[in-house]
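ok so for the tutorial part 2 we go from a plain amino acid sequence to predicted structure tokens. step 1 is just haveing the sequence, like this:
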Amino acid sequence: MENTVTLYLDVDGVVCPFGPAGHTPWDSAWHYAYAGMLEVAYAAELVAALNRLAVWPGLRCVWLTSWEELAPAVLCPVTGLKGSSWPVLTAGGSGGGAEWWKLEAIQADVGRNTPERIIWVDDQLAFERRAQAWARILGRRALLVSPDPRTGLSPADLEAVRAFARPPDPKV
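step 2 — the prediction. this is what the tokens look like for a chain of 172 residues:
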């Protein structure tokens, strides 16, 4: 059985933290790069780990970020993240209304692509009740990871992602 998992990845507060200070959660210095008109901070170890994860068989990586097309076009070249060919979900003109555009976009993508399991990484997830409720409906098919936006995705967060993305044990 093929492992089909989709990883939906945000940028701000996940790959690039807000106002980083001290060392990364990877116990290294922050790297800085100019991404278009702004400077971003990132952990080189996180980028390397995401690059290793993204090539797993059966794992589809998708950008779900307000950066939209700028993530693959601008962020990837300056950080070394090999996500320039990942699909990009967009707000598609929505930005108002009661629903969070990212929730609408992920629901539409899951409906179109029907992955067995999904992983959604966004620092806002801890505050989005409707997204949490939707994930509860999916049950064991969904993993939501909401990193601390000041540090971004930590080694423990990434290990949870890796563990969830691994193919299920066929003996179970």
